[in-house]
Structures are given as C-alpha cells and as structure tokens.
Amino acid sequence: MNLSFFIGPILGGIIGLITNGIAIRMLFRPIEAIKVFGLTLPFTPGLIPKEKPRIAKSLGDVVANNLLNENVIKNGLLSKEVDDKIANAVNGLIAKKSTSEETLRELFYSFSGDQRGEQIITEVSTKIVDFSYERMVKMELGPLLSEIAVTEIVSNLQGSMFAMLINENLISSAKVKMSEIIERMVVEKGEGILGNIIEKEGNNLLGKRLCDLYNEYEDRIPEFVTWIISSYHQLIEKNIGSLINALNLSKLVEDQINGYDVLTFEKMILEIMHKELSAIVWLGGLLGCIMGLVMSFV
Question: CA–CA separation, 103 vs 207, rounded Å?
Fold first, then answer.
C-alpha cells in the first residue's frame, strides 16, 4: 500500500482542525487592538471583544421582546402551577396556625415588624374611613333617614291625643328640618364616628387568637383561598405592564453583560456552546480530510 495516499487526508484534516480552532479562538482573542506603526492590525481585537456592546444590546432586546416579554411573564405568573403553589402555601399556613394561641396582630407583625405593621394598619384604616365617609356623604342620608323617621313617628302617634295636631305641612316641615340635621351630623361627625367604629372592630379582629378564628371560619377557608388567588391575579393584571417598564429588562440585560469583563464573557459563551464549538473544530478536520482525500485522486 502506498502510504503517500494518506498524506493528503491527514494533512488536510490537521489543517482543518487548526484553522477552525484558530478561527474560534480569534472570536475572543486578542482582547485589545494590536497596533503596528500606529496602524491597527486586521481582526484585532477579536470579534467578541470588539462587538461586545452591540452583542449586549442585541441580547437585551431579544430577552425583553421575545424571551421575557410582558405576555410571557404574565402567563407565567398567572399559570395554574403558580395558583396551586399559592393555594398550597396559604392552606399550609392556615393548617400550621389552626391551633396557635397567637393573635392575628402578632402573626401580621411577624411578617411586617411591629413598627411597619402598625403603620400599615393605620394607613389601611384611614383609607377605609375615607372611602366609607365619602360614600356616606354622597348617599344623601338626610332625606332617606328623615323620611323613615318621620313616617315611624307619625305611625306611632296614630290614635293618640297628638294625632289631631299632625298635618301634611307639619310632616313636610319636620322632614326638611330633620334632613338638615342629619346631613349636618354626617358631615361634621360622620368621619369621627366611622373612625371609632373601624378602630374598635379592627382591634377586636386583630386581637382574636388564630385558633379561635380557625374554628369560627373553618368552613369559609376555601372562599378565603379563592379570594387570595383572585386578588393576586388582579394585582398582576393591573400592574404587570408598569412593573415590566420599571424593570426595563432590555437595559438590565445589556448593562449586566457590559459589566462582565471579556474573559468572563468568553467563559460564559464557552460553557454554553462548548459542544457546538468543539463540533465545528472537528467538522473542520473532517472537511480538511475529505478535501485531502479528493486531492489524492487528482
């Protein structure tokens, strides 16, 4: 057998391996531009170091617009798997605390801290009072309550000695006067009354032991879990757009990549594409071997 027949394929394979290996290496090297007599040598710096800012921006755009856009994130957050995890977490917490002597206030403070918890309770109470007071004023309770009150009074006076003194003018006048008094009381004292009621009922609720609450509302736990999940969905639906805009994922990814030095960025790419880049090197060797084999027949 003529061994010279194998020289072409062997040399071709070696050349293919070397050239593809060098080409891949030159993606990352040299890191800095090389200048000779003030002129920058071609292919320096390597393609990755040279184009790193553009690559970072492109990757940021791809992630923000395709991989992790608003619809993808929203679908993930509102998936059945997440709902099941929330339900399991809530049910697990309820089951764990079902025999606890701890009060609802103490449980809340364990998550928020005493100072912050008290601040949140005050803020929520204030919002409830403000909302209720505004609705109460808009309801115009004066005419409604005065109508009920005067009708009841007239009904109770029927058959008594005062019945003969009652006429339409007196009734109409009484309604107007009582309506004005009620409206004035609502405006002047309604907010304070509501504040006292909310504070009293809130303290009563927060002061209850968890075991007592569990025994009292055990049959309504599924409704509570459903309400938690529904509130979570509403929160995500309402705020996901502003949240994504605030995060600015494209800029976040771009800045993160630009923050890596070239060597770290190279290591990341090699870890991700090690098999693929190695395959390219061996493919170069295979093609070189084939070309050398062809040349042996020429």
Answer: 6
Asked if residues 177 and 147 have their Cβ atoms less than 8 Å apart, the reply is no
Q: By the 8 A CB rule, do 149 and 178 touch?
A: yes
- In sequence order, the β-bridge partners of residue 209 are 103
**Among candidate residues 182, 194, 57, the one with its CA nearest the CA of residue 125:** 194
- 180-184 own/partner pairs: CB under 8 Å, 24+ apart: 180/142, 181/142, 182/141, 182/142, 182/145, 182/146, 183/140, 183/141, 183/142
Of 190, 202, 189, give the one whose Cα is nearest residue 139.
190
CA distance 73 to 76: 5
Strands (E), 5-148: 35-36, 39-40
Length of the chain: 298
pTM: 0.64
Mean pLDDT for each 10-residue chunk of the chain (298 residues)?
71 87 84 79 80 88 88 91 94 90 90 90 91 84 75 65 59 76 83 90 91 90 93 92 87 89 84 86 87 76
CB atoms within 10 A of CB 95: 11
Q: Which residues contact 293 (CB under 8 A, 6 or more apart)?
A: 8, 9, 12
CB distance 206 to 103 below 8 Å:
yes
d(CA 260, CA 206): 50
Using CA atoms, how far residue 102 sits from 119, 196, 268, 276, in Å, is 20, 25, 50, 59
Separation between Cα atoms, residue 293 and residue 297, nearest integer Å: 7
